[in-house]
Model the fold of this input.
Amino acid sequence: MTAFLKLLFRNRLAAMGAVVLSIILVLAILTPVLPLQDPNITNTGDRFARPFTEGYLLGADHLGRDQLSRLLHGTRTSLMVGAIAAFLAAFFGSAIGIISGYFGKRTDNILMRLIDMLMAFPYILLALAIVAALGTGLINALIAVAAVNIPFFARNIRGITVGLSHREFVDAARLAGKGHIRIILTEVLPNVLPVIVIAMSTTVGWMILETAGLSFLGLGSQPPDSDLGSMLGQAKDHFTTHPHTSIIPGIMIFLIVMSVNLLGDGVRDALDPRLRSGALSRPLPVTNVAKDRNVPAEDTSANAALLDIQELETQFHVGDRIYEAVGKVSLSVKPGECLGIIGESGSGKSVTALSVTGLVASPPGVITGGAVRLEGDDLLAAKYEKLRSVRGNRIAYIFQDPLSTLHPLYTVGDQLVEAIRVHDSRVSKSAARARALELMKQVRIPNAESRLGNYPHEMSGGMRQRVGIAMSLANEPDIIIADEPTTALDVTVQAQILALLNDLRRERGLAIIFITHDFGVVAQLCDRVAVMYAGRIVEEGPTQAVLDAPAHPYTKRLIACVPELGGGRRELAAIPGLPPVVNDLPPGCHFAARCDKCQPECKVGYIALEGNEKRTVRCIHPEEALA
Amino acid sequence: MTDALDAKAPDHQTAKAPPSAGKLALKVDNLSKTFPIGGGLFSKAKAGVRAVRPVSFEVPEGETLGIVGESGCGKSTFARMLVGLLEPTTGHIEIAGKALDNADPAAFGRLIQYMFQDPISSLNPRKTIRQIMEAPLKLLHGMDKPQRDARISEIFASVNLREEFLERYPHEFSGGQAQRIGIARALAASPEIIILDEPVSALDVSVQAQVLNLMARLKAEFGLTYLFISHDLAVVEAVSDRIMVLYFGSVVEIGRAENVFSAPKHPYTKLLAGSAPVVGRPLTAPESAAAELPDPLNPPPGCPFAGRCPRVTEECRKEEPPLVAMGEDHFAACFHPL
Done:
């Protein structure tokens, strides 16, 4: 709650709205006990008394009634009516929305068509019609305003409920014996309540205005009672001669509606989890690179690699916490080589890959050290234009879920054509299309020609991933970074995609960095493998050697955890405990707390990655001496 | 409506439990599900997608039956019918001798529970763990407060969770912990059977084994029967007694875990086993790239695997092969078994 208020008041406009609104509210609440004149006592002798005259702080109206007293009583009425109308609209609208969204099918269809009918009339006309049918009066105006606003709530809440009622926790509640009513009240409602509150806070101002509008037309509050709207209505005839009688209630309406809306927007922003996590703040096009990073010297030897990642350090700065996602990672690939990076979630393997072309979201990501050399050029020092031409052109990515990287509203053909033309605008559309077709054939998409016109959702997961690969090949890159490209796919499809990547690398001399958590995949595809744990490489070497004789205890035990097909029924090996959180890494070996060979010296100092040309390991007591 | 589809329904054998197995935990007879397509406010639904074709099998008490298949094979539809979340189009379900013919999750809940794939999204974000745990105890078993507290402590001790977790909210837990809370909730209903739907696929491998081993221990401790659904063949093989292979809504093979992948009868099972990445096996595409799943809206006649099968003959394209016994405890639906 305090976090919410802090967030709310960081928004200056919302804070201003809150202050103004609370002053008005306090005044409205205190009205009966304030030393005011009776708002309904007429004194025709003082009619149209100007403000600040004796006895009339804000003047008097056309019947000589005290304006200040009438204003405060009117404000009281208007606020009350607006709030009650908002509550009624929210209550009935949300009830319809939840029922409609939860039960779906025919119930949903009928309820929503009824709501559509309500929405088909211009709302003011509808409100007038309701008042005409029920008769004039404040209560009827209130009912009319509430009814007119029901569709807004019903549609909003229905949308959210539809999403919620298919969530697994609703199924779980049914299996726990809960009936529909109980599920709606105890499972669905708590999750939609914030949305209802947000919707209410943004509409209550609007409803005050609508009630005032009806009163202005003489359909709301009836004399001698008045709300702000009817005050304005009565004053409008004397506007030219005695403007203060209209201006004062006008200003009050303005202040109320403005402050309610500002506060409402503030509440919405503060409650919306997406805004809170900063997801809507646009990340920079390139990851921030710390100015004082240490840049390792270039490897100028003859067998220098195509891509050389040197002592890369990437951190996330969230509030005052620092997450060391990648700690001094050094890796390199040569043309035609496939390097596997293996690790569990949170090991820093994806962040390493994204850091290469500055794709880590900034803020909060910062590259604090190291260098990424593409044929000697340090990409971390490169300007944005340079990086843009490298991305896709020389280094291309394949991501886990092609459905989220392909645009849902364009055909895959159009997207391929765009990918080709964005890097070389001289290519004509027809040439690009021919090239797209050729790419689709290269990734073995059957009936490539007709598939060009498909939208992403019309393809199966395997076909989409092929399009993702075709996309990455569009500009003949030298390096492909594949981040778990087959994790979301079925095994039979995975086998096809892996075979395809393998062929492409042999045919075109592509270098592949393949990120995965699956040893089977690494064993089949990769020449070398690096094992990552809590942001650091713990072991690196030729795939076969690492798998046959893992040197780091983590590698050895991780391999043992993975059951292999053909082993029959058995007890599986597990590693007790969890990986450390990277914002509070212990000194020494990060795996020490889970390692059964841990010695006191494992928990102090910095343990370096040591070994020879071919194999390295970060361990004081390795399982095997490195050959 | 389904006349045309039913005309050539094959005469499946029931995949019976071995006679030595003792009491039956689950008996499924001719269970199937067809989803209607279209159908608005005024129009009647047209013919549908057959998500699960008629299936009959038995599971003896204390067994773990593994269920494997690729996406779209109907395994989740199948599981949701077994727990009563979805009404079957045809067929009967019998759990521990009790027939369950109306899809009422509360009636099913005392006999069979479901453990969900996504550990976090199966817990209501706005409820404490205690509130989540109490629901089945209160509603399914009518326990009063002291009884519930005692039972929750007992279950939490069994799944190695600290009781202080009870007052926390789901987002405060790691995947492995959340999955253990999921197990604890399923256990709270004291069911005979628990369906585990991809229980470890959202977890890291080093944590995966912790959860799998815990589940094996709980099974012995509480005398449970498991139906273990997964796409990871090696995991299924490691935990199951028998394995059932689904393809396109049909059971294509069912048999002892040690035989199904090492000596498959159905060509599809062989393809699956051959596709799993294994250390030390060279990388080759097990089938041509043109192979795709059949279109569920317009299913081909005959064996659904015919379009991808290397052993296909004319017969396969005309008639759907029935599930028949092929050796001890081994059934397959194929005219030309391996």
Remarks:
- The CA atoms of residues 31 and 131 of chain B lie 35 Å apart.
- Chain B touches chain A through 78 residues (CB under 8 Å).
- The first helix of chain B runs from residue 3 to 6.
